[in-house]
Amino acid sequence: EIESIQKYDWGANPVGRSSPRTLLLSAAIGYRDLSLYSTFLSTLRKHYDGDVMLLLEEGTIPGIKSILQEYNVTHKEVNGTDNWDEFNIQRFKYYSIACKNYDYCMAMDFRDSFFQDNPFRFLHLEAETELI
User: Fold this and answer.
1) How far apart are CA 70 and CA 65, in angstroms?
2) Which of 8, 32, 102, 126 is the most buried (most CB within 10 A)?
3) Cα distance between residue 132 and residue 124, in whole Å
4) d(CA 132, CA 105)
């Protein structure tokens, strides 16, 4: 049957599935409370060791950057506080740029999110269809 046919390379060796590249990203604009960063990142890192990126406002305090470094999180500083309504739309342009080099991206709310499992766990499930 077609489902049982394996993919082969030119050397007739089975080609295995590589792990998909994943990115979790969030806009942490306007948040200065270090405990918010610690809660978000500590619960995330208990379950997920992949790439994480936060959008931060320009001139973010060093304490926040220190927490990001501790949890191996990249960041991009953006001008997001002049007009929140406008930034709330513009952030999706930043997300689109950040996601170009990944197979799967997940944008999360920052302030009220915490993690109880790997957010990309569904990628490792054997299923007939993908979650979209």
Assistant:
1) 9
2) 102
3) 14
4) 11
